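Appendix B, example 12.
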Amino acid sequence: MLYLIEKQWIGKRVIIEKNVLKLLRRSALFRDLDEQLICDVLESAEVISFEKKKVFRDDELKESIFIVLRGGVKSYQVNPRSGKAYTIFLFHPSDVFDIITFVDQEEHGVIFETLKESQCLRISHTALDRWVQQEPRLNQNIISLLSRMFLQLEKNTTDLALYDTFTRLSKLILRHVSIKPRIPSLLGSKIRLKHIENLSHEDLANLIGTAREVVSRHIKTLKEKNILETIEKKHHIVNLQSLIDHCDANM
C-alpha cells in the first residue's frame, strides 16, 4: 500500500515537473536556453500555490522573481487618497514578475495580486544572478523582456492620452481575442476572449484608466451593437469585424 501511494506521488510529481518544464521553455526569460540550465532552474525553484487576491509582500519581491504556472496576477498602483487604482500589467501562464526589482533592487510601490487561485514558480534572485553570470543569452532575454514591457507601457500611455474610453476598451478587447483578428473566415464567428474574458467591470476599468460605471455603460453599448455578449459571466465577441472597424476608424 505504501509503495502504491509513493508510486502515485512520484507519478504526480513527474506530471507537475513536465508541465513546469513546458512553461519554462515558453517563458520569455528562459526561452532558447541550454537544456541543462533549464533543469537547474527546475531543481532550484519552488512551486507555490496562492489563493485568489493574494497580495505579494515587498520582501517576497525583493528576494525572488515568479513565473506564473496557472491562474493570473495583476500589478497595479493605488491613489492613497481617492482609492482609484490603475492596472499596469496582467501576468498569465509563462509570464515573469517582478523582473524590474531583480534588475535594479529597488522598491517601486507597485502591488502584485493574484486574479484567481494561482500557482507560481518562485526563483531566488541569488540563483538567477548566478545563471546570468553563466549564460549570456539569459541576460539578453532579460533585456528583451524589459523592452517588451516598456513597449506595452508606451502603447498604454499613448492610448490614455489620445483615445476616448470607448476606443480604449475596444482596443483592449481586440488585443485579447483568442485568434488572429484578421482571418476573414473567422470574422463572423463567435470568438472568446483570452485572459480577460471573466474580469469584472472594475478590473477592466482599471486596465484602461477609467471608472467601473463607464466600462459598464460601454459594455452595454457593445452588446446593443451586437459586438459583444456575455455567457456565464464570460465575454465573447459576436461581431469581430465591427470591433476592428471601430478601432481602425479611430487610430
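The chain is about 50% helix and 20% strand. Residues 2-161 form a domain with the Jelly Rolls fold (CATH 2.60.120.10).
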